[in-house]
Amino acid sequence: VKNVCPFRTRSRCRGLHLQDRGPYQEVPAHIMPQLQLEMLASGTATNVLLSCSATRGTNMFRVPRDAEYQRLMLFLVSKFYTDFVLAGCAPPPNFFAELPQQQQLIRRTRELCTRL
């Protein structure tokens, strides 16, 4: 369950003001990796995302497991672990930007999020 906070701050005003944008209208790209890893860890075929708003309702998305997406994520996590953690060095900015697998994961994330 992802709750959308209905409160925002304004630069000229003190305190919080109600500004409820409502629940997500599609699965946000930054949440897709979490959903896919949860399915991998739990062995489930689908995951459910509820996007809740304090004043504008709830949207539900049923997200199917995507084996190719999970494979790409595991490849990149493994490469990160090998290249940086085991090597004991900090990753440079945009460390995997040129890897084909990273570009594939980005494209696949967009595809999965927009087709639900």
Structure description:
Helices cover 40% and strands 22% of the residues. It contains 3 helices and 5 strands. The protein is globular and about 45 Å long. The chain has a 3-stranded mixed β-sheet with strand order 1-4-5. It has a two-stranded antiparallel ribbon with strand order 2-3. The protein is of the alpha+beta class. It has helices spanning 32-42, 67-85, 100-115; strands at 2-4, 7-9, 16-18, 46-53, 57-64.
What is this structure's SSE topology?
Layout: E1 2-4, E2 7-9, E3 16-18, H1 32-42, E4 46-53, E5 57-64, H2 67-85, H3 100-115
Parallel strand pairs: 1-4
Antiparallel strand pairs: 2-3, 4-5
Helix pairs in contact: 2-3
Notable features of this structure?
alpha+beta; 40% helix; three-stranded mixed β-sheet; single chain; two-stranded antiparallel ribbon
